[in-house]
Amino acid sequence: MKETKPKIVAIVGATASGKTSLSIDLAKEFSGEIISADSRQVYKELDIGTAKVTQEEMSGVPHHLIDVVNVDTVFTAHDFKTLANQAITDIQSRNKLPIIVGGTFFYLDQLRGTSGVADVEPNPELRAELEQLSLEELRTRVATFDRTLLETLEIENPRRLMRAIEILEALGHIPKPTVVESPYDWLIIGLSVEKEELRSRYRTRATSWLEVGFLDEISTLLKKGVSEARLQEIGFEYTLGLSLLKGEITETEFIDKFEQKNWQYAKRQLLWLKRDSDIKWFKPEQRTDIFTTVESFLHN
Questions:
Q1: Which residues pair with 232 in a beta bridge?
Q2: For the segment 206-240, what is each residue's pLDDT rounded down to a tens digit?
Q3: 29: three-class secondary structure by DSSP
Q4: When you count CB atoms within 10 A of the terminal residue's CB, does the N or C end of the chain come out lower?
Q5: Which long-range contacts (CB under 8 A, 24 or more apart) does 291-295 make?
Q6: Is 199 within 8 Å of 259 (Cβ atoms)?
C-alpha cells in the first residue's frame, strides 16, 4: 500500500498579485496556518516597505516566519528551509494545513527540493573586493559569465549578486535545478494577473505606503542605527524611499519609479515561475475553482 505523504499548499505569483489575501481565505476554509516565504518579511521593523501582512489582515490566522530576525542579521535560504520545516512539523502535529506564501521562490524551491544547491563556501577576500563595486558593476560581473542570469536574479540586491558571483567564480556556472523527492505532497497554485492591472496595483501601493507612513518607517530605522547601505540592500523600495526622504526625487517620481521597478521585478518572478510545470494557474477572482482544486487535492 502506497504511503500517503503530508499535504502542503503553496501560493505563488508576481508581487501584488493577491497571494496574501488568497492564503488567508484558504487558511480559514481549510483549517490552515501560513508560512511566509519572503526573504524580507523575516526582518523585524520592516513592515510597510515589505508589504508585511498586518494583524488585522491576518484575521486570526496564525502566521509563521514573520519578524524572526533583526534587520542587521543575514538570513539565508538554508535558514528559511530549517525554520520552515520546523513550522511545517508544528502545524501538522496539530492537524492543520501548512500554506506557504511569498515572493521569494528560491526559498520555496529549496523547501520542495527542486532547486540547485551550490556547495560553495563564502570567500571573504572576494566579498571584500565585491563590496567596493556598484550595483551596475556587480551586474556587469555576473553578465561576463551568463547574461541570462540577470533575468531572474534580484538585480537590485547586492548581496544576491555577490553570492551569485561567488558561485560563478568557484564553479563557472550556477548549478541547474535538481529534483530531490520531497517528503510532502505539494499543490502549487499560481495567481495570474494582467500586466496593466499589476502596474496599476503598484501605483496604488506606492501612494498607499506614503499615506500610511513609509517615510516615517525609514526615518525610525535610521534613528535606530540601521545604515542607509543596509536598507538599500534590503530592496529597491527602501532605496527609493531614501531618495524621497532626502529630497532627491519628488513624490511623483517616487510613484513612477516604484511602478517601473516593481514591474521589472515581477517580470523576473514570472520568468522564474514559468520553468515550473507543476504550478496550477488561476486568476485571483477564480476563487471557486481554486477552492475546488484545494478540496480535491486534500481528499485525494
A1: none
A2: 999 999 999 999 999 999 999 998 998 888 999 99
A3: helix
A4: N
A5: 291/26, 291/29, 293/187, 293/189, 294/9, 294/26, 294/29, 294/30, 294/187, 294/189, 295/30
A6: yes
